[in-house]
Amino acid sequence: MQELVSTANAIVLTGLAIQLLFFLCFLALIVYLHVGSGCRLVEVPALRPVFTGVYVIYACLFVRTVYRLAEYAGGATGPIATRELWFGLFESMPSESMQTPGRSCVTS
Question: How far is CA 48 from the centre of its chain?
Fold first, then answer.
């Protein structure tokens, strides 16, 4: 039974590490599109909130994934896995960051 748990934990750790790798690839693509390409998207004022939102959500998801990687690396009884406050914070952070400040879906 312990061998199955160890194998499952290794699979999850590998998956999270691959996810972090693809997060970095996606970030490089977004930064290139935003700043490095010849499109000059930095100069478009209407896109500033869009890219700000993408960067904020991306940062939240990246921190959450690093946290999950550390949580699984520490095991089920590790110091990170036994702190429910941090788990709740990092689980709710990406969805809370999707709320665009100053904007509403309701029209008057």
Answer: 20
Whole-structure pTM value: 0.69
pLDDT score of 108: 44
What are 85-91's contacts with CB under 8 Å, separation 24+?
A: 90/63, 90/64, 91/64
What is the DSSP secondary-structure string of the chain? -HHHHHHHHHHHHHHHHHHHHHHHHHHHHHHIIIIISTT-GGG-GGGHHHHHHHHHHHHHHHHHHHHHHHHHHH-TTSTTTT-HHHHHHHHHHHHHHTSPTT--S---
Residue spans of the chain under pLDDT 50: 102, 104-108
Distance, in Å, from the CA atom of 28 to the CA atom of 36, rounded to the nearest integer, reads 10
End-to-end CA, the chain? 59
